[in-house]
Design brief:
alpha/beta, 4 domains, four-stranded antiparallel β-sheet, 25 helices, about 15% strand, elongated, binds adenosine-5'-triphosphate, ABC transporter G family member 23, ATP-binding
């Protein structure tokens, strides 16, 4: 099908001598100069069917033309509060510039968001080109509408050209079309070099870029929320002249809000709003004529002040004219989306429905996903500082575990109160060691204790050692009773019962500071190990079988893992999972809040992007970041920690990436639900710690109350951590009962968070 692209006609390049107006295009008569095979603006508009008898003839007043947008009895309120829009009627003729005026807070932006399908009306109907504003297949929201929000709504990390490319590709324009349009708008709006970053532009320059971005796809409908704020009067004139031409030549329908009343003189229709109601819809000339004022500003101010609907001198016919008279005639087909029987069904300008096959729809989604992913990449790469943190911090956290959990505790000071022999006696009796001597057993035993772990400090009295424990200097103390060696010998050799006094005098009493369990366990293990070795050695030196002294419970080689005190193997896999899950929560959550609060997200939705497309684009971008994080984590685990991955490294890696995606989808949910970045950070942190504590990373799940155990098992980190340990340390495959549940939990949470986000957007936010 043939279509047109547009350029400035030759006179537009004429430069005036006036310095201020230098090179400002004198006229922007749009001239069709090239035919392409792609469907473009004109074709999209011409495809519309005028359903009114006789159509909208060139000569007839555009005020009375067929409506592009019709609002009838619209009521809208937020959170069951006072109505922001109440019984509002509006009719935007096709191919006209419609200026929406009203005091601050009267509901202009709310009305625009309802027209664009971003907000739901509570009562009444809004029809855009004869279709339901929220559900239609005419590409609105989509490529058939250009939207400029009140905020700048551009990515500060982008250059001007990249911003144009982004919006052009969201709307499905080709690169060549975008380049031509970029050059055109640079000239028209006196934009700086296209390579300049948005963050380096002045406020006015940013607004002009934002304006151009809304027009880059030549949409038949333009919704511009205060586009001329902060723009100098000359460029403002240019903008208005361009909009006039778009409306008259290309039949673009333009809705523009502004607080500069005089500039609205150039509009075809002015709608004046007050406290959520449409007071009048008239041409500028009619507005003046119907007031006691000679200027438009005076007429509008008069209206604002009176708050009354302007009475037409000819019996309210004017308003009737505006809203209804053009509607005479043709009936359209009634459909489910049609409003109740009313003039809405007639006199509307209907846009051809997009006839897309499923494949074409998917192709368009693919194009948008590509644009969104590209945008995410640029934003990510331009925030290199944050990116680098995000990439290496999970690995750094695993590294912290590796270096801190690697060593047994050393130099633990333990008091010795040896009532059998003091330290100098013990020193002098070293020769009896390993000579089958049953004298000074206390001294012999102490020699077997690992002196790297335990450092003995001798005391005369138990009270002194206890005082040292209280002061925090000692970890505990051991008391050897007098004649312990003799009593022990009697106990062992008697073969029958012995006196309590003999028994009591044959045991060593130890008391420890048990507040630090890891330390007290390490001490006890060391002291018991020394006792075991000492007894075996003593028996051997007496030509006895050393096994006599061994406990009848013996541990063979471990089935999995090793027998020494090393928490790294247990902790590393879980910490890796938890940390790779946490970062995307904060990064995506805060980025999304940023995008929403800056109006970028709204712009993106108006351009036709679907929530699921945004999800996929974030997942695609996040994948590379997670991939890099995963590689670094594995390098730390394998190379620095020397932990051997017994099972499939790919399975472990996949689990790690899934955990990152789980965090990403939760981040998207938080970004959707939270109002500020601080909310995201607080929520993410408050969830992070319970997640760590309850998932068995620090304290085993088996050590928790039974009720809690069933709850923690469905948390997003518990079963995946167990799966990771089973793959890494035990070498289990995917189908093992301790592996696949971890994958299943993560997939469940990803889908669950996505579903919650979509539901929130659909049922709560749009209300
Ligand atoms: N999400 C929201 N929740 C609650 N109230 C809202 C919300 N958005 C807007 N409002 C309220 O609705 C009213 C209309 O707001 P709106 O932004 O539509 O006004 P406006 O006419 O565009 O104002 P301005 O000219 O200052 O941009 C205001 O009182 C505003 O506080």
């Amino acid at each position: 099908m043939a279509s047109h692209t547009w350029k400035l006609s030759s006179d537009t390049h004429t430069c005036s001598n006036d310095k201020n107006q230098n090179c400002i295009p004198q006229s922007f008569r749009l001239t069709s100069f090239e035919e392409t095979q792609n469907q473009s603006h004109n074709e999209r508009v011409n495809n519309a069917q005028i359903l009114m008898a006789g159509g909208d003839s060139e000569g007839s007043s555009r005020l009375e033309g067929n409506a592009a947008i019709v609002c009838q009895n619209v009521k809208k309120w937020y959170n069951k509060g006072k109505p922001v829009l109440s019984d509002l009627n509006m009719r935007v003729p096709c191919g006209s510039v419609y200026a929406l005026l009203g005091s601050s807070g009267c509901g202009k932006t709310t009305l625009l968001s309802c027209i664009l399908g971003m907000s739901r009306v509570n009562e009444g109907s809004i029809f855009v080109y004869g279709e339901n504003a929220r559900i239609n297949n005419i590409g609105i929201p989509g490529r058939n509408v250009g939207f400029m929000p009140q905020q700048i709504s551009l990515y500060p990390e982008f250059t001007i050209q990249e911003s144009f490319n982004y919006f052009a590709s969201l709307g499905g324009s080709t690169n060549n079309q975008c380049v031509a349009k970029s050059e055109f708008f640079t000239l028209l709006l006196k934009l700086p070099s296209l390579n300049r970053k948005i963050s380096t532009l002045s406020g006015g320059e940013q607004r002009r870029v934002s304006f151009a971005a809304a027009l880059i796809n030549e949409p038949p409908l333009l919704v511009l929320d205060e586009p001329t704020v902060g723009i100098d009067p000359i460029v403002r004139q240019t903008i208005w002249r361009y909009l006039e031409d778009l409306a008259s030549i290309k039949r673009t329908s333009v809705i523009i809000t502004t607080h500069y009343i005089e500039e609205a003189r150039r509009a075809n229709v002015i709608g004046v709003m007050r406290q959520g109601k449409m007071l009048v819809e008239l041409t500028p000339q009619q507005l003046i004529e119907n007031s006691n004022s000679t200027s438009l500003e005076g007429a509008v101010l008069q209206l604002f002040k009176s708050g009354l609907e302007l009475q037409d001198r000819s019996g309210d016919k004017t308003r009737q004219n505006v809203c209804n008279s053009a509607c005479a005639g043709v009936e359209t087909q009634e459909s489910e989306s049609d409003p109740p029987k009313s003039n809405l069904k007639t006199g509307v300008y209907r846009m051809a429905k997009l006839k897309r096959t499923k494949a074409e729809g998917l192709k368009q989604s693919g194009t948008r996903i590509k644009a969104l992913t590209y945008k995410n990449f640029i934003v990510m790469i331009r925030n290199i500082f944050l990116l680098s943190f995000a990439i290496w911090i999970p690995a750094a956290e695993v590294f912290t575990v590796v270096i801190t959990y690697d060593f047994n505790p050393t130099n633990l000071k333990v008091g010795i109160i040896n009532q059998e022999a003091n330290s100098s006696v013990c020193d002098s009796k070293r020769s009896i060691q390993r000579n089958c001597s049953f004298e000074y057993l206390s001294c012999q035993y102490l020699e077997f204790v690992d002196h790297d772990t335990v450092e003995f400090v001798h005391f005369e009295l138990a009270q002194d050692a206890e005082a040292a424990v209280h002061s925090g200097w000692l970890k505990g103390y051991l008391v050897f009773p007098p004649d312990i060696s003799q009593n022990l010998f009697d106990l062992v050799s008697s073969g029958s019962s012995v006196d309590d006094s003999v028994y009591n005098s044959s045991i060593v009493i130890g008391r420890f500071d048990e507040t630090d369990k890891a330390i007290s366990i390490a001490l006890k293990v060391t002291l018991f190990k020394a006792l075991d070795e000492f007894i075996s050695t003593l028996l051997l030196s007496c030509d006895l079988d050393p096994r006599i002294g061994k406990s009848s419970l013996q541990y063979a080689l471990p089935l999995y893992g090793n027998s020494y005190l090393d928490f790294r193997d247990y902790t590393c896999p879980s910490v890796a999972l938890a940390s790779i899950m946490t970062f995307p929560i904060i990064i995506l959550g805060t980025r999304l809040v940023d995008e929403r609060n800056s109006g970028m997200l709204a712009r993106c939705f108006v351009a036709g992007a679907q929530t699921w497309e945004i999800f996929i684009s974030y997942f695609l971008t996040e994948f590379w970041s997670l991939f890099a994080q995963g590689i670094l984590i594995f390098m730390v685990t394998l190379v620095i920690a020397g932990i051997k991955i017994v099972g499939s490294i790919w399975l472990a890696f996949t689990l790690l990436i899934l955990s990152g995606f789980c965090g990403s989808s939760f981040g998207i949910l938080l970004g959707t639900v939270c109002r500020t970045k601080l909310d995201v950070a607080i929520l993410a942190m408050s969830i992070f710690f319970p997640n760590i504590f309850l998932s068995g990373i620090i304290w085993p799940v088996e050590g928790m109350p039974e009720v809690l155990q069933s709850i923690v098992n469905i948390l997003p980190c518990t079963l995946p951590a167990e799966s990771m340990r089973s793959i890494v340390l035990r070498g289990f495959g995917f189908f093992h009962g301790r592996v696949w549940p971890g994958f299943a939990v993560l997939v469940f949470y990803i889908l669950f968070y996505c579903a919650l986000t979509v539901s929130y957007k659909k049922f709560i936010k749009r209300k």
